[in-house]
Write a structure and sequence with these properties.
About 50% of the residues lie in helices and about 10% in strands. It is globular and about 95 Å long. The protein has two domains: about 30 residues; about 240 residues, no CATH class. By secondary structure, the protein is of the alpha/beta class. The chain has a five-stranded parallel beta sheet with strand order 3-2-4-1-5, sandwiched between helices. Helix 10 crosses helix 12 and helix 11 crosses helix 12. The protein contains twelve helices and five strands.
Length: about 290
């Protein structure tokens, strides 16, 4: 009997000790394998912006009363504070929301000779001014069309083009009333607080997260999968191509890449750069002198 009791006691102790030993194993961070040396990665800094020219080509239209005049003396002083903050990053490459046909380099040369001083465009007011400050000779136009654009622009397509046109016929990138209220608040806020504070708000992780969430509402729910398919092959694909353009323009682990795009794009790029192990992603608000 004692022998049997001793056996079960010994078995119990081995089980407990085995469980204790197993519980002491600390799972390794995936970056142990994926990012052996973070300092060897190219750095990227995303700046989500709104259109200083208020083209109002997006789904949400900004009323005139909620528009700022970036060329006013007050806003130019605020812009200097914003540029001084971004300059802490010390970019050696600046990538902007522009297609090749925008002729960024031609415009940049005109800017260097003082011929675009009164342009309100954020690519000029932020991108060009920072490029000049850091004596950069190149700006990278990394915007892209989507696969949907490529396929629907092909007028020789007898099946694919009509299919995509029907799929996207009433997709307007609308969200819901709550997002409209948030957009009204956010745009008015830009007229009420300094530009740097507004950019910190616009580029905060919570704001980017909810901007990303806007695409999952409203027209996303059209049909069974129609809204989801439009988002995938149009808007999401476009941003994946923009991300790919950043990859293609990255040539050195010493690259310090400033990406200047509309905040709607940054909402998706933020997700991509948080996921990729190939870049050191410096988030807006993290810069310190």
């Amino acid at each position: 009997m004692k022998t049997l009791k001793s056996f079960f006691l010994s078995l119990f102790i081995h089980i407990i000790l085995g469980q204790y030993a197993f519980s002491q194993i600390t799972p390794k961070d995936p970056d142990t394998f994926l990012i052996p040396n973070k300092d060897s990665l190219p750095q990227v800094f995303l700046v989500g912006c709104f259109h200083f020219e208020y083209y109002n080509n997006d789904a949400y239209k900004v009323e005139e009363g909620n528009q700022i005049n970036i060329l006013s003396e007050k806003k130019q002083q605020e812009l200097k504070e914003l540029l001084d903050y971004i300059a802490i990053f010390k970019p050696n490459k600046i990538m902007i929301e522009a297609l090749p046909q925008w002729n960024a380099m031609k415009k940049y040369k005109q800017f260097q000779y003082g011929k675009m001083a009164f342009s309100k465009d954020e690519r000029v007011q932020i991108g060009f001014k920072l490029a000049k400050r850091f004596n950069l000779d190149t700006l990278y136009s990394i915007d892209a069309s989507s696969v949907a654009d490529d396929l629907t622009s092909n007028k020789d397509s007898l099946t694919i083009r009509p299919y995509f046109m029907e799929m996207a016929k009433d997709y307007k990138f609308t969200a819901n009333d709550n997002y409209n209220k948030y957009s009204d608040y956010s745009t008015k806020l830009s007229t009420q607080i300094p530009l740097l504070d507004y950019f910190k708000y616009l580029n905060s992780q919570k704001a980017l997260q909810r901007d990303y969430g806007a695409y999952l509402l409203g027209d996303f729910k059209l049909g069974t999968y129609r809204g989801a398919d439009v988002l995938a092959v149009d808007w999401y694909d476009r941003n994946l191509r923009i991300f790919r353009n950043i990859q293609r323009a990255t040539t050195s682990p010493k690259d310090r890449i400033l990406v200047l795009f509309g905040s709607g794009h940054i909402a998706i790029l933020d997700q991509l750069f948080k996921a990729t192990p190939e870049y050191n992603y410096i988030k807006f608000g993290e810069l310190k002198k």
